[in-house]
Amino acid sequence: MGIKERRTKILLAFLLLSDKDFTDVELTASIASIFDLSLNKKTASTLKKMSKEGFLTDKGLSDTGSPIYRLTDLGFDDVSLQFPFFRYQRHEWDNKWRILSYEIPEKKRELRDKLRREVAGWGLGPWHRSFWITPHPIIPSLQALVSKKEEEQYIQAFESSHVFGDREILIEKVWQKAKREQTYKKVFKKWHDILSTDQDKDKKFSAVINEYISVLRDDPGLPKEVMGDNWIGFEAFTLFKEIRKILLGR
């Protein structure tokens, strides 16, 4: 799967197995295995902590003794920071752009690289040198991340509306829309190849998930107002849900 953190695996699992209004998900051993999880004490402890913190709602046990949880709005917003594609599948865009600028000296290169890693999944795209742009409401998360830390002094953040200029040119320059479209087409082909194999349904779905996560990691999650209703990323999500229904019956 390529995701190391257990907490992230859990949130993503409940997100990908739910509809946008969130449904109860029974975490069976087979479902856990699909998402590279084991139903051991560490996973049980993480689930309990996440439920206590409000990221999941504990719905008890199923008739077979498997835990049932439901993703919450807090959990959704948290996982959407790392996988921003999903935010505007549930929320409406406010038509504002967030601009992040940081000028961290070369002698503080390690600090600069650390900041880049921490905000890498926030849908930010490089506009100009040291200027990054995103449609996502990241300012509160950014403030929480850098408040009272050394890097705070080097950062400026803004919110703005797009007033003038060809937005298509901007989107291609910043996020390479055409290249992302080709990446999704490759995933579609891989999905077709996976579904054509003789593997059991769980293994097929696990392979589908792995391919999907590989492209979701880099999808900035731009809203339909920017990408258009027919953007291939939206088509991929619809197709994924159809595959999920075929293989898992949900």
Mean pLDDT score: 91
Oligomer: single chain
Number of strands: 7
Widest beta sheet: strand line-up: 5-6-4-7
In terms of structural class, how would the helical and strand content be classed? alpha+beta
Total DSSP helices: 12
Outline the low-pLDDT stretches. none
Rg, rounded, reads 19 Å
Please estimate the helix content.
40-55%
Biggest sheet layout = 4 strands, antiparallel
Q: Could you state the order of secondary-structure elements as H and E? A: HEHHEEHHEHEEHEHHHHH
Termini separation (Å)? 21 Å
- Portion in strands: 5-15%
Q: What does the overall shape look like?
A: globular
Please give a structural write-up.
This protein is α+β, with helices and mostly antiparallel strands and 250 residues long. It is built from twelve helices and seven strands. Strands 5-6-4-7 form a four-stranded antiparallel sheet. Strands 1-3-2 form a three-stranded antiparallel sheet. The relative contact order is 0.12.
In short:
This protein is of the alpha+beta class.
Provide tags for this entry.
13% strand; 12 helices; 3-stranded antiparallel beta sheet; globular; single chain; alpha+beta; 4-stranded antiparallel beta sheet; 250 residues
Topology readout:
Blueprint: H1 6-16, E1 25-26, H2 29-34, H3 41-53, E2 56-61, E3 67-71, H4 73-82, H5 87-90, E4 97-102, H6 109-118, E5 125-128, E6 131-134, H7 139-146, E7 155-160, H8 167-175, H9 177-195, H10 201-216, H11 224-227, H12 232-248
Antiparallel strand pairs: 1-3, 2-3, 4-6, 4-7, 5-6
Helix pairs in contact: 1-4, 9-10, 10-12
